[in-house]
Write a structure and sequence with these properties.
heterodimer, A: alpha+beta, Aldehyde Oxidoreductase, domain 4, Aldehyde Oxidoreductase, domain 3, 3 domains, seven-stranded mixed β-sheet, five-stranded mixed β-sheet, 20 helices, globular, B: alpha+beta, Uridine Diphospho-n-acetylenolpyruvylglucosamine Reductase, domain 3, Enolase-like, domain 1, 2 domains, 14 strands, binds flavin-adenine dinucleotide
Chain lengths: ~775, ~290
């Protein structure tokens, strides 16, 4: 099945860049794969959550006596079952979480802060009984005024979510509480000076709506707490070690007493980096003494998990008549949801990252609103700020009649560019993606009457972090690869390829497994596009560890010094003066001899992966706009992105396509609709419109490979960058088609039609 | 809950009449089962009508098409005569849901679920289809537009159910068309639907026109003014504009998560125009 890559950096590798069938493929296609809800245990109970019907309310009291009296109900838990925790920030994906907030998010304490906020949970013998029990729990609420919009929430008279919230990051500290949790600022040079050099200055204000990650598999878990204080948890998550840490903290357990297994995962996109049901299921299991399974309905997923932050972004950019950008300034206001911690900081850092600028200033506000606490969503924070910047850059290009790709090339960040957020870039591939875009047939193809074309670029940092991996050599020479990063995008295939390359063995001889939290050392979650990079690095290290052991063993067999043994093409060979003296010993030979020569072979690595290379991408899109209905149709779409090295090109392409499609949904249709009481009106895929297959064309991809020097095979993360450019690319294309710029997302048919009608009326007047 | 699957009309009527207000007809179940699972309804009796031959047949009776109440979208889509006579009705049925839903969803279910956004209903109304209704008092006929009286409300009496849809005779130079607007391309609920049926005389003038709109009022509406704007014309741009204006003027929509009043009103005229153009084109092609 292996075919060679279309985008391979060089021909020196044998496995990297090939496209074997994914090891998890058959089980997924046949339905054998076990996802979060696919495990059943003897004596299992069903857990259900009672959720606040109010967007903002003080909880005066909770009376569960009637529910507890219902036959079949085993236990009910409320805020009283969880110990309060003090303020302590810990990393979760690319964002931070605060335990004081996590305990309140999984079970409301003083107040319900959004519609859908858990206020109690029940464990019962059946789903039906659990539902009946929920209806019997009496919660006395004092309904409070609520606020949903970020600008409204910043107003001095806005209802306060947390009465003691004093804005951090402002000197001197404010004396009055507000919904602004934090203000951050990034500066490079002096923007006043930069704007003084400009011939043209454009400033615009943009808004984006919160959007849900839209994973198809809802949150689900099963907890089994035993009498001796140990517990097992099976759940769908991007990071079971992180889940273990959070749950142990909330339940007051030692991490060693909690074993968490990550199920197969039906999508996460950042949204499964936090805990919702898991601590609740554990608490229900602890109190009832029985296993408890909990699965969210789609409605619950929408009301209480995700989304990405809704934002208001103001951008000002100055440029010379020759197309040199002289300064960029932005103010970002991001919704955090009910608890602090929006991704406004990465939003600020990414805003101008694609440009080599001397003068930049970005200020960001982290703002609380009565919505679910935002969770990471592919490149958290970046799509919103880069949408604004890439829209203004497009307008600047139009203003001076310069091709927008050319303008970007003129100002592109490259190796040596000092980014406004601090670091100086190593080798990065933005220029290469822009050159590919310019040369691409798509960019020159004629457009039909009424259509428009847009381009935009995007940036994401990518991360590394704590990672373990093990390679266990079987007695027949095949290998079990154990990684600790759940596979959400084909990473098991990519890890096997890296191991195969390192060891010089057929990839089919390596079988991957995502180990539970007791099988490996602490491994950070799958997020930040780190898995192919960091777990890949760990696998390569583990491979080298095993090669070292194999060479030692061969040296012992041959009775020659170990430095006279080399490993090549999957076998130990005598080298140097001993070259040719002995027949090589293959991996299988050595495996067979293991018992007689010193015991089993296990390659191990425990690393803190550093030097994740950022990834840049450039997207080209053609749209058609129906002037009478306002519908925007995506006619053609090309994603060009730097992958460093595409380990398994099909899965890189899949990432690029998936990111683009999610971006298309964000741009055109996705939004939360609330009534005047702050209750969500569209908690389902019928009215929360992620694109369906027939909504999008085949997304073309071009993989650019500018190897990341810190990774042994040049890998960069690729999973997040592709969701960054679509919104601006599409808005730029719509502008090209209509001569009208949309600064508010989504560009849904009613909004587009209204803008067209308003323009017609204005023209007639 | 009791499930029954009678094989005769009389058997079904008897069950339904005896079942009281908590008896429900089951055709394809693509609405009914969803509502059951969501605990929106809790019937005591479910009467499956799919074993009754009359509900499953597509027949021609003296040049008139008769479509059984429980005929599915997929079956209709493969019926050459139905497609030739009523392409608009057939395309409206084929729009429902996905391939899986197509194997189940019926015209009567679509009508009797009584949603103002039901896709086949504007096409059926434009086609001047009549329901053949069986009940304790025998069989009666009712124009499709008189079956629903409001969202979720029917003018059927206890014990009555729809057996089939009867279509009028089709003169030469006639055709119909149905269009809906949804923000996606499938798996969505109509924000506006427009069914248009046209007949032309030998000289190419419009002899009869019916325009019906969905999702713009509590029930699907037949817009007689819109039809009148076309009769006697060649369906030229000016006539179509008048028709569109009449269609928009008849809209009484609500603002909701699926569309605004302003949007629905405007797009109703647009879709009616486009559907009329398609119907006219088809009518000219059809002899
Ligand atoms: C995924 C999905 C997508 C869908 N997409 C669409 C769409 O695009 N457009 C659209 O319009 N609808 C759509 N629907 C709704 C539904 O499929 C249609 O309304 C369908 O036509 C219902 O037909 P049915 O035979 O399944 O009805 P059923 O569910 O069997 O019945 C619906 C209702 O009508 C009553 N009823 C059924 N037959 C009779 C009868 N002969 N006499 C009296 N009462 C009767 C039932 O008691 C029930 O109240 C969709 C549904 C799903 C689940």
């Amino acid at each position: 099945m292996a075919a060679t890559s279309n985008g391979k950096a060089n021909g020196a590798t044998r496995w990297i860049g090939t496209r074997p069938v994914r090891p998890d493929g058959v089980d997924k296609v046949t339905g054998r794969a076990r996802f979060g809800a696919d495990v059943h245990l003897p004596n299992m109970l069903v857990g259900k959550v009672l959720r606040s019907p109010h967007a903002h309310a003080r909880i005066r009291s909770i009376d569960a006596s009637a529910a507890l009296a219902l036959p079949g109900v085993k236990t009910v838990i409320t805020r009283d079952d969880f110990n309060d925790l003090s303020s302590e920030f810990v990393p979760a994906g690319e964002m931070l979480v605060n335990y004081r907030d996590v305990v309140r998010n999984v079970m409301a304490r003083e107040k319900a802060l959004f519609e859908g906020h858990p206020v109690a949970a029940v464990a019962a013998v059946s789903e039906k009984v659990a539902r009946e029990a929920l209806a019997l729990i009496d919660v006395d609420y004092e309904v409070l005024p609520h606020v949903l919009d970020v600008v409204d929430a910043m107003a001095p008279d806005a209802p306060l979510l947390h009465e003691d919230m004093i804005t951090a990051g402002v000197e001197p500290a404010p004396t009055k509480p507000s919904n602004i949790a934090k203000v951050v600022e990034f500066k490079l040079g002096d923007v006043a000076e930069g704007f003084a050099e400009a011939d043209i200055v454009i400033e615009r204000e943009f808004s984006t709506q919160p959007v849900h990650q839209g994973y198809i598999e809802p949150h689900s878990c099963i907890a089994n707490y035993s009498e001796d204080g140990q517990a097992e948890l099976w759940c769908t998550t991007q990071g079971h070690f992180v889940v273990r840490g959070h749950c142990a903290k909330l339940l007051g357990m030692d991490v060693s007493k909690l074993r968490v297994t990550a199920s197969e995962i039906g999508g996460g996109f950042g949204g499964k980096t936090v805990v919702y049901l898991e601590p609740v299921a554990l608490m229900l299991s602890r109190k009832s003494g029985q296993p408890v399974k909990m699965t969210m309905s789609r409605e619950e997923v929408f009301r209480a998990s995700g989304p990405a932050a809704g934002t208001r972004v103001w951008v000002k950019i100055g440029m010379t008549n020759e197309g040199r950008i002289t300064a960029g300034e932005a103010v970002l206001k991001y919704q955090a949801g009910a608890f602090q911690g929006s991704p406004v900081q990465p939003g600020c850092m990414c805003a101008f990252a694609p440009y080599d600028l001397d003068h930049v200033k970005v200020v960001g506000y982290d703002v609380l609103v009565n919505r679910p606490k935002v969770a990471a969503y592919r490149a958290p924070g970046a799509p919103q700020s880069e949408f604004a910047v890439e829209s203004v850059v497009d307008e600047l290009a139009k203003r001076i009649g310069m091709d927008p790709v050319e303008l970007r090339l003129k100002n592109a960040a490259k190796q040596g560019t000092k980014a406004a957020y601090g670091p100086t870039f190593g080798p990065v591939g933005l220029v290469e993606t822009l050159e590919e875009a310019k040369a691409h047939e798509h960019y020159r193809a004629p457009l039909k009457q009424g259509q428009g074309r847009g381009v935009a670029s995007g940036f994401w940092f990518n991360i590394g972090g704590e990672t373990c991996a093990t390679l266990n050599l079987g007695e027949d020479g095949t290998i079990a690869l154990v990684a600790g990063t759940p596979d959400i995008g084909g990473s098991r295939a990519s890890l096997c390829l890296q191991a195969a390359e390192t060891l010089g063995v057929d990839v089919e001889r390596i079988r991957p497994l995502i180990g539970d939290t007791s099988t490996l050392g602490y491994t950070f979650l799958t997020g930040g596009s780190r898995t192919a990079f960091a777990s890949g690095m760990a696998v390569v290290e583990a491979g080298k560890d095993m090669i070292r052991q194999l060479c030692e063993r061969a040296a012992k067999v041959w009775d020659i010094p170990v430095d006279a043994v080399e490993w090549a093409d999957g076998e130990a060979r005598p080298a140097g003066s001993n070259a040719g003296e002995f027949d090589p010993l293959s991996l299988a030979d050595l495996a067979r001899l293991a018992g007689k020569t010193g015991g089993p072979f296990v390659g191990r690595a425990q690393i803190n992966a550093q030097g994740a290379g950022p990834s840049f991408g450039t997207h080209i899109v053609d749209v058609d706009v129906d002037r009478e209905t306002g519908r925007v149709t995506i006619e053609r779409y090309t994603v060009i992105q730097d992958a460093g090295t595409a380990v398994h090109p099909s899965y890189v392409e899949g990432q690029l396509q998936g990111g683009a499609v999610q971006g298309i949904g964000w741009a055109l249709n996705e939004e939360y609709i609330y009534d005047d009481k702050g209750r969500l009106q569209n908690p389902g895929f019928l009215d929360y419109r992620i694109p369906v297959c027939s909504d999008v064309p085949m997304i073309d991809t071009v993989i650019v490979e500018v190897p990341n020097p810190t990774h042994p095979y040049g890998v960069r993360g690729v999973g997040e960058t592709p969701i960054v450019p679509p919104m601006a690319a599409i808005a730029n294309a719509v502008e090209d088609a209509l001569g009208m710029r949309f600064m508010d997302l989504p560009m849904s048919p009613p909004r587009v039609l209204k803008a067209l009608e308003d323009a017609r009326i204005a023209e007639a007047a | 809950m009791r499930y029954e699957a009678p094989e005769t009309i009389e058997g079904a009527v008897k069950l339904l009449a005896g079942g009281g207000p908590r008896g429900r007809v089951l055709a394809g179940g693509t609405d009914l089962l969803v509502q059951l699972r969501a605990s929106m309804i809790a019937p005591e009796l479910v009467v499956d009508i799919k074993r009754i031959d009359e509900t499953r047949e597509i027949r021609e009776e003296g040049g008139r098409l008769v479509i059984g109440a429980a005929v599915t979208g997929a079956e209709l889509g493969e019926h050459a005569a139905a497609k030739a006579m009523w392409p608009g009705v057939v395309e409206s049925a084929e729009l429902i849901g996905s391939t899986q839903i197509q194997g189940r969803a019926s015209l009567a279910g679509n009508l009797c679920n009584a949603s103002p956004a039901a896709d086949t209903v504007p096409a059926l109304v434009a086609a001047a289809a009549q329901c053949r209704i069986a009940g304790p008092g025998g069989v009666r006929r009712l124009p499709v537009e008189e079956v629903c009286t409001g969202p979720g409300q029917l003018s059927l009496d206890d014990g009555e159910f729809v057996v089939a849809f009867e279509f009028p005779e089709r003169p030469p130079h006639s055709a119909d068309a149905y269009l809906r607007f949804i923000p996606r391309t499938e798996m969505d609920i109509a924000v506006v639907g427009a069914g248009v049926s046209l007949s032309f005389d030998d000289s190419g003038r419009c002899a009869a026109a019916r325009v019906a709109l969905g999702a713009v009022a509590p029930t699907v509406i037949l817009v007689e003014e819109a039809g009148r704007a076309l009769v006697g014309t060649e369906c030229d741009d000016a006539a179509l504009q008048n028709m569109a204006a009449a269609a928009s003027a008849a809209c009484r929509p609500i603002d909701d998560k699926r569309g605004t009043v302003e949007y629905r009103t405007k797009v109703a005229g647009v879709l009616a125009t486009r559907a009329a153009k398609i119907a006219a084109q088809r009518a000219k092609g059809a002899r």
